[in-house]
Model the fold of this input.
Amino acid sequence: MDGSFRGHRGGSEMGQGLNIKCMQVAATVFGIPIEMVTMSEASTEKTPNAPLTGGSQGAGVHGISVKVACKEILELGFGQRISGALRYRARSTSRCTAPNAASLPRAACTGAACVSEVNLLTGSHKLVNVDIVMDAGVSLNPAIDIGQIEGAFIQGYGLLTTEEILWDEEGRFLTDAFQKYRIPTTATLPKKFRMMLLDKPNTYGVAIYSAKGTGEPLLLLGQSVFHAMERAVLAFAKNPQKVKPFASPLTSAKIRAYAKQYL
Done:
């Protein structure tokens, strides 16, 4: 035995860093280098009935399970670790070893400021500057979390400005290709994209090492771009008080229509 650890966790790794974060938790509990930790992908053979992966709670729910399992193995002593791991594997089929996802309180806090340029003649728009501050608690992995935050923001930006689903009068689907259903690309990224995790985050004792989710909360920040574009149109409206709320997604076609109606 070389003191390395191999774990089996629930949850689905889909680029959000669930696997590496669970490895970090195990390495922290055992006090060993992360290079000595291996975490297998989820399998119903080893971890059946695992909670769903979503709601920005994957690392929290499954990370706590890993932490509890590792602590139990340590409490059994070195000579009993193998049998202890097997015993925990059997117990981990029940959710009693980790908090139910629905029971975790939501404590996400984030904000964004953006500058967007809008051409009222063509309806085209360009995201110029974006600044985001996020209270991610004590981040398990800042590099992964920053990537999650940036990606979630851009996804929300597309959701509220370009991604429109259309049907014709006979119910036929029109936006059936990426040439018609426009998603954000590298060309739509802002010229300046600044992202910062809060220097002095609030502690969050319920979560794994006080870490907070960084997925869906940032998706909602796409509203900042929507309202920036909305204000750009309203700035030139003849009677802005009479303008009705704009509908999302605020596509180029809608911008041209609103400009024609209110300017």
User: Anything to note?
Assistant: The helical segments are 18-30, 58-76, 81-91, 142-161, 216-219, 222-234, 252-262. The longest strand covers residues 125-135. Strands lie at 5-8, 37-40, 109-118, 125-135, 192-197. DSSP finds seven helices and five strands in the chain.
